[in-house]
Structures
1.
Amino acid sequence: MPRTHANLPRLFVPSALIAGTPVDLGKEQSLYLAAVLRKSVGDEVVLFNGRDGAWRAQMTSDSKRSVSLDLIEQIAAQPAASDLWYGFAPLKSERLDYVIQKAVEMGAGTIQPVLTQFTQVSRLKHERLVANAIEAAEQCEVLNVPVVAPEISLSALLETWPSDRRLILADEGAASASPVERLTQLAGEKLGILIGPEGGFSDAERTRLLALPYVVPISLGPRILRADTAAVAALAVIQATIGDWR
Ligand code: SAH
């Protein structure tokens, strides 16, 4: 991937990015640019909003309360949205932040916390998860900011699961053969990937999952991985075999 303008600060903004329409930053981002990064009138940044690609923009005001910018040129078109659904049993604090960041970097389209029997976290700060996803997108030049869905129970998830979407289950009990062959058979299909909590799925949950026609269990090798490792490993093997690494 060509890295143009990699040295410029990248900011996610909620507003539309349209040639000729100036952008005013909110308080927090203004303070960040003007005070923390000490940027001033004439300095450039890259703006994106998850819809209108990436734009080179130039500061026309460096007030610490409200920085204004003019859009100069679009430097990247908005890529097609990722359709990859990523479900995981939420982990505690830093490791929760970690899995959100990694899911953004690995190209998930939807990030869905799923509450299972052995999940140790039940209440999530949705705003924090969204802020984390945005920050990861800013850092890693990801223009598609995934949708972070509010948490849902595994039962509710399965009751509403669309029958035309496959659900790849990271299953440490699956026959330990390479997942590559199994995944290759799913090329072109709508996909989701589900990772269990630290304690794994309960026997009842696993039995229920494995009985569903759309569930495809895969092994991630002969070792038990921690849930956050399993998430990255699963997303990597999916992207490399049937996803956007090809
Ligand atoms: N069952 C274990 C470990 C759970 S690991 C226990 O009793 O503690 C957490 C999650 O990571 C699992 O639910 C599974 O989704 C995934 N995972 C870990 N190692 C895996 C492997 N080798 N293959 C497939 N999935 C794995």
2.
Amino acid sequence: MNMYDIGMVGLAVMGRSLALNLADHGFRVAGYNRSRAVTDEMTAHWPHENFAPFYQLEELIDALQKPRRILLMVKAGEAVDAVLRQLVPLLEPGDIVMDGGNSFFEDTRRREAALREKGLLYFGVGVSGGEAGARRGPSLMPGGDRAAYEAYVRPLLEAIAAKAADGSPCCAYMGPDGAGHYVKMVHNGIEYADMQLISEAYLLLKHVGGLDNQEMARYFAEWNRGELKSYLMEITADILREPDDLTPGELLDRIEDSAAQKGTGRWTSIEALRQGADVSLITAAGAARVMSNRLEQRAHAATLFPAPPMKQAQDTAAFAETVHRGLYAAKLTAYAQGFALLRTASEAYGWGLDLGAIAAIFRAGCIIQAVFLDDITAAFRRNPDLESLVLDPHFLSEVTARIPDLRAAAGAGLQSGVPVPALSAATVWLDQFRGAPMGANLIQAQRDCFGAHTYHRTDRDGVFHHEWGAQQ
Ligand code: NBP
């Protein structure tokens, strides 16, 4: 008895993979799943000397070393509360419960407070990297009590986390209560924007550039050897080459033009609105998925609305390079928006987030891992108070050099009727950021005109109201 280092509750894809990862690292894992069949499947197909199945939660709890450490890997939402209702009465003060699912950070804050009242320690742990990451090394974003983290959580999580090229684990303490799940939420938001930008580059190369899948695969593979090297670019090159197993040609051409979402991107947009932060690329990416789901409506409207004539690129190689350079500027803009939201949230919730440490743990194991995260890490190390990534001297020169390409790539899409919402949003945001006139003087005037909301002048201090039309 009392011989297991950690209890894993939930043995579906993610729980199973993390349990085996922990077991590989010498931790003795006790596993439980609500449905017995899932536990049996795990022990039948993936037996491990450091893993033992349990069929009663009470027995699992009795078998854990104290203070007990339990990692929940169940469906986010009501399932977590259901498990906690069963689990909490079985625990003792000082025991630790970690939620590794994609829980909403406000739920994590609520649960942390409720368990703290009972003397229990609750951690929201963001886990990124999908099944393969969980099995071989995920990026981990834990939030909760700092002292308990150092003593009991850190050794477990650092052991199983991915390792960056410099050998450091892709796991760092994020902050108290919901900080870990918040960072995971924003990570997923950036992931939405990054995927959308890559799919827009694909659309432009295909329709404006006139390239076939193999040619596009060569470009993405080439780009993946340079400044855009990342997991998402790598899988995109592979996907473009993948033959269909049912018909001749590539599988990509047989896949429906409609993408689902689970909600973390949407949460990021809603939260950004609450905080007064602009994550326009993430919002554009979420909205694009919503529009993509309207397959019937889009098919019907295609018969009603004429498409503009396609303005084919004359020099394909030059156009591809424009897309390549524009994609870099847009991706950096998406990261700048995501990190700016983290900065705002850190102040609003009093978390003291270390943006450099966050960039560092995104360098391996997670879906958005990319070489330029080394540069992002360096930018926040140089200046932890950096207001925006695009103001870092390195990125300022890299992005400004590519803004004409971004403008040309987005413009090519708009002119030819190729929807490029995220590339357009990046162009607009960079124009707004660099101080282009925004027409807000007219909006102030309208507000004062219809609602006496007052206005500010450019030539003197103070608040003014004008009797609109009185002098006409
Ligand atoms: P799912 O999100 O599909 O959840 C399935 C698990 O939840 C099963 O173990 C299931 O037990 C359990 N469960 C449910 Br549903 N309701 C329950 C309840 N009322 N009481 C107890 N257990 C309950 O599994 P997953 O894909 O392994 O993901 C686990 C978590 O990790 C989720 O929050 C997910 O968002 C997050 N995540 C997933 C990925 C990924 O790539 N899949 C990546 C990162 C994070 P049962 O077998 O009895 O139905």
